[in-house]
Specification:
The protein has 761 residues and is an alpha+beta fold. The chain has 15 helices and 37 strands.
Length: 761
């Protein structure tokens, strides 16, 4: 069926044409197109003022288009904001390149995904298109995508659908529950999208830009690499093969390109020569909740330890060890890096770090000595793996294979993998995680029931930062992305909730007592409060579901105690809070360096982070070996010495009215029940700043604490790792204990040691 574009419909592209200067931009001119065959869709990744996705659905001879800032999701609980924008011509579906500076939408454009779609309930393209146009007018469309990355049923829903005026452009994009969605998958194990890889050419955003500039072009309109791949969809369905689609013309996809939920793919007979792949997407299992027996002839069964899944890249002197979110484990497990660095042959391994962090159990072979093994069957990959000599190194061991009967006797968490399956990355139907109770020869349900899989997330499009446009959904997505690094700093600590359900402009309130209803995954601890003269149920944030639940309540910032439940009267670290008044941040840095120097005289190490506002927090690990009183006394004496060195710019006065504009050296944070914004916590301030750990070498002129915020911090974590990981290790504050024993209770011991000329006036 072919639909002729009506002349009256040409006006749907008038806004597109008005915004563009076609003598200055390589974008195609807006012309309506005839439809032949199935309806087409394209999703383009666009790095303009901000990086965002553009979702385009063919309707009425053009692409109806929505800008989706955070891109699509396979989780039905995720409601992604989608802003309706001007129609785009069908030819735009083949555009990949650079829009020159000075033009509307200037920046790099990638074809992130493409394919065909149909309206739910209408396999006939003509009837489906009519139903989609009716749904567009009504404000609710449901459709099924068949793309290179996205598959399954989605919906676009206009907020306040009764308001049908042209100014109502706010929609949400939602994934429907089906075999391609992740509603049965553990939070945190969802497939990672290959956001920087083109579905048409296999190029990253950087490669698209670099190749265009290298050729002196702002756009690469080479039909053999971009245009035919979308335009030939209808023809390929009829079995026609285009010469322009030849394998010689096409750039192969990048090795690290992950998939959505996968089906079994036919294995290659031999490994393929390849450069070592970087940032490999882990193959992730589905959670198997049904009771079934796994035939060891078909399935390879491995016991999991419950530690961290990780990829190890070994390439000469370069060793990388990272998580499914590409966060580096190097700072956390340096001994494993040492063990892996003893391997001389280049290779990439899929494995699991044990819960105690002492060993790396190798589960799979991805790459070895110039050959990519992912296309081989699992049985062949494991056979090659078993012959390697790497397991002679301390800390590196090969995963053991179990029969179902053996697994049932030992009990625990197991991984069943199809022996004929290839390694494709992302969540796979060929991998299943299941549990067995010791002594039983049957599979049992997973650890979490349906009420524990994760929190219900609501009102995700509510704007929490009005001036910045950041939403509640953005906040939740941030905490989901940094869960691996923030949770160790929150674990087992009572929390005081600071809630902003209406956003930062509406003000917030504190909540300590959490009695009454709570989901099963959320833990609480009962502590007697002297001030309230009653027992209070404090929240404990021990898992990702709890973290997202609190964010969903409007807890913009996470405020834990300095001590854990098991050692409630003994803080894990002490804190000195530098709270400026009229001082510049450079002056705050200078005072922080003085704090460090004073501590260095006692041979005591300290760590620093931004407060998330205008100050700095300096922490010293105590290992829960001191009481709060001892921590406060020591902190006060350190602050007193700093005040002597900066008498005109600092004060120990608690009353703000009496500080005279001087920076407050706050040592009173070291008290039972006192809370402080955690490291990696967002703060309810304009710009959504984050309390960010710093290296002392970064503490210099030009450092701006507002530069660390919710929308960019993940990139820093990926590069730096957790700079505060040392604070999680056991500490031995012997020098502090000795100092407290030797010093006079009324004053510090330094007054006679510091020459007056060294004191800053």
């Amino acid at each position: 069926m072919t639909r002729q574009a009506s002349k009256g419909a040409q006006s749907t592209l008038s806004e597109y044409n008005r915004k563009r200067k076609f003598d200055q931009t390589p974008e195609p001119q807006g012309k309506l197109a005839d439809r032949s065959g199935k309806l087409r869709f394209v999703i383009q990744l666009h790095r303009a003022t901000r990086l965002h996705f553009d979702v385009r659905l063919e309707m009425g001879g053009s692409f109806k288009s929505w800008a989706v800032p955070r891109g699509p999701s396979l989780n039905p609980a995720d409601q992604r904001l989608a802003v309706f924008v001007e129609d785009h011509p069908i030819a735009y579906g083949s555009f990949e390149g650079i829009i020159p500076k000075g033009n509307y939408g200037a920046g790099t454009v990638m074809i992130w995904d493409y394919g065909t779609y149909e309206e739910r309930g209408n396999s006939d393209p003509g009837l489906g298109e009519k139903a989609m146009l009716e749904g567009l007018a009504e404000g609710h469309m449901t459709f099924i995508l068949e793309g290179q990355k996205l598959r399954g049923e989605f919906a676009l829903i206009r907020l306040n659908p009764g308001e049908k005026d042209a100014s109502n452009k706010t929609w949400i994009l939602v994934k429907k529950r089906d075999e391609h969605s992740t509603y049965k998958i553990k939070r945190g194990q969802e497939p990672g999208w290959p956001g920087d890889v083109s579905a048409a050419t296999g190029r990253t955003m950087a490669e698209i830009a670099a190749e265009a500039q290298k050729k002196g072009q702002v756009w690469i309109p080479k039909k053999t690499t971009v245009a035919p791949r979308l335009d030939m969809v209808a023809k390929s369905e009829a079995g026609k093969k285009s010469k322009t689609e030849s394998s010689a013309d096409r750039k192969p996809p990048r090795n690290e390109k992950p998939k959505a939920v996968l089906a079994t793919k036919k294995a290659d007979p031999k490994p393929k020569a390849s450069p070592i792949p970087r940032r490999v997407a882990l193959e992730l299992p589905l959670l198997e909740r049904t009771k079934k027996e796994w035939d060891e002839k078909t399935w390879q069964i491995t016991k999991l330890s419950g530690g961290h899944r990780a990829v190890a890249e070994i390439d000469g002197s370069r060793v990388a060890l990272y998580s499914k979110r590409f966060l580096s484990f190097k700072p956390k497990f340096p001994h494993l890096i040492d063990a892996l660095s003893k391997i001389r042959t280049p290779m990439v391994l899929d494995g699991e770090i044990s819960p105690d962090g002492k060993s790396f159990q190798v589960l799979d072979l991805i790459f070895f000595d110039g050959m990519d093994y992912r296309g081989l069957a699992l049985s062949e990959r494991l056979e090659k793996l078993s012959k390697l000599s790497i397991f002679r190194n301390d800390g590196i061991r090969l995963s053991k294979t179990f029969t179902h009967e053996e697994a049932a006797k030992t009990g625990g968490t197991f991984l069943a993998r199809h022996r004929d399956s290839t390694y494709q990355g992302g969540v796979s139907r060929d991998w299943h995680e299941f549990e067995l109770e010791a002594g039983e020869d049957r599979a049992v349900e997973g650890k979490k029931d349906s009420g524990e899989r994760g929190p219900a997330l609501t009102h995700l499009t509510k704007v929490y930062w009005k001036d910045d446009g950041y939403t509640k959904g953005d906040l939740i997505e941030y905490y989901r992305s940094v869960a691996d690094v923030i949770l160790p700093h929150l674990r087992d600590r009572p929390m005081s909730l600071h809630r902003f359900p209406g956003g930062i402009d509406q003000g917030g309130f504190y909540q300590k007592d959490f009695t009454g209803y709570k989901p099963k995954f959320l833990e609480t601890t009962r502590i007697y409060s002297e001030s309230a003269k009653k027992s209070v149920d404090y929240v404990i944030c021990n898992n990702e579901s709890s973290l997202l639940y609190l964010a969903n309540l409007g807890c913009i910032e996470m405020n834990p105690w300095l001590s854990r439940v098991s050692t409630i009267e003994n803080p894990d670290h002490l804190v000195i809070d530098l709270d400026p008044d009229r001082q510049s941040f450079e002056e705050v840095i200078e005072i922080a360096k003085t704090v460090r120097k004073v501590l260095e005289k006692l041979d005591i190490e300290c760590w620093v982070k931004t407060s998330g506002a205008t100050g700095l927090h300096i922490c010293v690990p105590l290992g829960a070996k001191l009481t709060y009183d001892q921590a406060r006394i020591f902190s006060e004496r350190i602050c007193a010495q700093v005040q002597l060195l900066h008498p005109k710019s600092t004060t120990l006065e608690r009353n703000p009215a009496k500080r005279g504009g001087r920076l407050y050296l706050d040592f009173m944070q070291n008290r039972t029940g006192q809370t402080l914004a955690s490291v990696y916590s967002v703060r309810p301030r304009p710009g959504a700043p984050v309390s960010t750990p710093l290296k002392w070498s970064e503490m210099g002129r030009g450092l701006d604490p507002s530069g660390f915020h919710m929308m960019n911090l993940l990139r820093r974590i990926e590069k730096q790792g957790d700079l505060w990981a040392p604070l999680l290790k056991p500490a031995h504050p012997d020098k502090i204990i000795k100092f407290l024993a030797e010093s006079d209770e009324k004053s510090g011991p330094w007054e006679k040691q510091v020459p007056r000329k060294a004191r800053k006036k």
